[in-house]
Amino acid sequence: MLLLGKYLIRYMNLNIPENTSKNTHNIVESLLLEDKNSKKVLDIPSGAGAFTYRLIRKKIEVHSADIENIMQIDNPHFMDADMNQALPYKDSFFDAIVCIDGIEHIERPFDFVRECYRVLKNGGNLIVSTPNIHSLRSRWRWFLTGHHNKCKTPLDEGNVSPLHHINMISYTEMRYLLHTNGLSIEKVTTNRIKAISYLYLPMIPLAYLATKFVFNKEEKNLAQKKRNKMIMKHMFSNPLLFGETMIIKAKCVKD
């Protein structure tokens, strides 16, 4: 009977909704496990607990946090936390932080990233995913409608919800957000590339030439010109041009 109960629990947990785009959890997990020192991890916002459960199965100490507890598994390390406010953890407490499709929902992303820096150990990693509004498909939708691919219509201001995408973030904005707060981007990738996205291939030459022209014309600072070359490299990579979700891994560097 006890054995049957364990199988039932496992079956139920394996069906926890991920509430994100397909394959995002798989990619985030692989990025996290690249670093063998990721032994104490914060999963925020944890939602129903799908990613938390993945880490529990890997014998990783995972601390789950969200604005309310809707976890479908028991985790003694769950805490209520508002991503707009100070996080309820000590300085340099975590080896890694995972933020899956959360940053676009909050009013104060800069404050959140500063808090991530505070609670991360030196050399720790922040892995963050968010809808990829940098993709050519999303930019084309913005050109035609003024709305990006993962926020296709105006938000319902008569029914304010924490699920609203109030802060859609481009790659360059995300880079600035991270790099000005002690976190250095190491990898940029995506969850998947849909076949329909390749319909926008013909836009690349014009987009590349226009971007390069503007960057060279407007930027006078030599140090930033050098950084812009790396920014261009990421901007015109397949994950950002065609990917559905932008997934970034950044390392915490403390003096």
Give an overview of the whole structure.
The protein has 255 residues and is of the alpha/beta class. It has one domain (2-197, 243-252): Rossmann fold. The protein has helices at 2-13, 24-33, 50-57, 109-119, 136-145, 171-179, 204-218, 222-235, 238-242, and strands at residues 40-43, 61-66, 78-80, 94-100, 120-131, 183-190, 245-252. Helix 3 (50-57) links the parallel strand 1 and strand 2 (61-66). The longest helix has 15 residues, at 204-218. It is globular.
Keyphrases for this structure?
about 260 residues, alpha/beta, Rossmann fold, 7-stranded mixed sheet, 9 helices, 7 strands, about 35% helix
Task: Offer a concise description of the structure.
By secondary structure, this protein is α/β, with parallel strands linked by helices. The protein contains nine helices and seven strands; from the N terminus they run ααβαβββαβααβαααβ.
Shape, per Cα inertia axes: globular
Q: Do you know the CATH topology?
A: Rossmann fold
**Rg (C-alpha, Å):** 19 Å
Tell me the domain tally. 1
List the helices and strands and how they pair.
Elements: H1 2-13, H2 24-33, E1 40-43, H3 50-57, E2 61-66, E3 78-80, E4 94-100, H4 109-119, E5 120-131, H5 136-145, H6 171-179, E6 183-190, H7 204-218, H8 222-235, H9 238-242, E7 245-252
Parallel strand pairs: 1-2, 1-4, 2-3, 4-5
Antiparallel strand pairs: 5-7, 6-7
